[in-house]
Amino acid sequence: MGTTATVLSISFTTVCVLGIAFVIYIARSTRNPAVAAPDHGALAEREKAWFGVVVVLLVSLLVATIFFTPYGRTASANAQVEKIEAIQFAWLIPSTPLQAGRQVEFKLTSADVNHSFAVYTMSGELLFEVQVMPGRTTDYVYTFKHAGTYRVLCLEYCGVGHAEMENQLTVTA
Q: Scanning 33, 41, 93, 142, which has the fewest C-beta atoms within 10 Å of its C-beta?
């Protein structure tokens, strides 16, 4: 057995022994009749304090991130409108190129099942992802910063041809 395998075996055995010892300690401490009954009043007060801490943390998180939420943005008057339809297993995208630095209002619909409109740079960076549902039009506003070709993929499993559901957007300067 090599050095790495020996170190892994010893480490695994040590962790297992410590884990078993911890479980035995917990089991013995919960069955000890000499331990005094818990103070339910103090536990209730501690529970209220933790509830308050959690509420404050969640509200702080909401306030800190709400302004970065992309939904709810409205397109400006000179925005490009791009109507895109999803069908199993293709994106129907008009061939007109988009302009970099100008808002694009995507109007997304699905003819059949749920899809996920995900736009990636050619290097694989996800720019945004929008859920597309049948019977609804989903609006999403985005401004491409750079000219180039962008990949459009479906991230919602939509059937046997899901892996081939891919298209491209062309953005010009």
A: 33
Residue 74 lies in a domain: no
Per-residue CA distances from 10 to 13, 21, 24, 136 (Å): 5, 16, 21, 58
How many whole angstroms separate alpha carbon 156 and alpha carbon 166? Answer: 12
Q: Quick check: pTM over 0.85?
A: no
**pLDDT one-digit tens code per residue, 111-169:** 999 999 999 999 999 999 999 999 999 999 999 999 999 999 999 998 899 999 999 99
Domain that holds residue 65: 38-69
Give which of 89, 83, 155 is closest to 116, Cα–Cα.
155
- Per-residue model confidence (pLDDT) at position 32: 60
Give the total number of structural domains in the chain: 3
- 118, 153: one domain: yes
- The rounded Cα 121 to chain-centroid distance in angstroms is 18
- Same domain, yes or no, for 99 and 43? no
